[in-house]
Amino acid sequence: MRLENKVAIITGAAQGIGKGTAKLFAREGAKVVIADIDAPRAEQTVREIQAEGGTAAFVHADVEQEEAIQAMVQFAVDRYGKLDILMNNAYWSKSGTVIELARADWDRSLNVMVRAIYLGCKYAIPRMIEAGGGSIINVASVHGLLAATRSAAYEAAKAAVINLSRQIAVDFGPHGIRCNAICPGWIITERGEEFLAQHPDAYERAVRCYPVRRGGRPIDIAYGALYLASDESTFVTGTALVIDGGLTCWLQDSLAQHLEQADRV
After folding, report:
1. 194 in any annotated domain
2. Rounded to an integer, what distance in angstroms lies between the CA atom of residue 127 and that of residue 133?
3. Does any domain span residue 2?
4. Are 181 and 161 in contact (CB under 8 A)?
5. For residue 265, is pLDDT > 90?
6. Which residue among the candidates 80, 154, 203, 223 is catalytic per the annotation?
7. Tens of pLDDT along 226-248?
8. Is residue 164 predicted with pLDDT exceeding 90?
9. Domain contains 1
10. Is residue 118 included in any domain, yes or no?
């Protein structure tokens, strides 16, 4: 019970990484607020947690709206009496180069992936200080460290998440607040499962880029988040924890040689 008596908010927890983390946090003793715009899936997540004996509640939260974020934090405090953990995980992005992207899609991407973190921290940190401290976990990406094609908004946002996390760690460490980012590699969520079902060869091609020879699952990120949320990491702040199956540790010329050799097999 590594999170016993702790209260956590996880945004975007109706499915994917957020759902996997919410279920693990609840199994470890946390009271979890599932914040999402997808009410049916979010309520299903709550039911699954409760069926396992955990404690969870759903709050509808559109993280593009400042009032919704403020209400989300207040909901957690009203429901469970305090706030110890905030995991900013909600995501929306549009692919494209800076020429291809419409201004509205750029704005929405940055609003959901960056501004929502600023606002979540703005309203959560005072309540965490009241509780004696807390842990903030911001979901970034390996795309915040390295660039991919036609991903201008996503790359910009995830890089911003990493340095914003460092800034929050610097500013609020003296108040007992730790803030870290997680940088996942390829994580196969529900949407990924649907894609792979339609393209069965895609998985084997993709995993050749990963030294561990598999794609990630939400639970892989959830265990990293559990460490950062727990008291086991009280000396860890301002870091970007890469959980990517080794994707970013390969020199590109070595990876290219590996893929060339694999294609010849």
Report:
1. yes
2. 9
3. no
4. yes
5. no
6. 154
7. 999 999 999 999 999 999 999 99
8. yes
9. no
10. yes
3 state SS of 91: coil
Task: Say yes or no to pLDDT of 259 above 90.
Answer: no
pTM over 0.85: yes
Predicted local confidence at residue 261, as pLDDT: 78
Report the distance separating Cα 121 and Cα 86, nearest Å: 8
The CATH number of the domain holding residue 74 is 3.40.50.720
Q: HSE on the CB side for 215, CA within 13 Å?
A: 14
Residue at 35: amino acid letter:
A
14 is written with which tokens? 């109706």
Q: Compute the Cα dihedral for 54, 55, 59, 63 and give only its sign.
A: negative
3-state DSSP helix/strand/coil % of the chain, to nearest 5:
55, 15, 30
Q: What's the total number of domains in the chain? A: 1
Q: Give catalytic status of residue 118 as yes or no.
A: no
Tokens, residue 134: 């807390």
Full domain range(s) for residue 30: 7-264
Query: CA 239, CA 110: separation in Å to the nearest integer?
Result: 21
- How many whole angstroms separate alpha carbon 212 and alpha carbon 24? 23
**What's the whole-number mean pLDDT along residues 63-72?**
98
Q: How far apart are CA 91 and CA 4, in angstroms?
A: 28
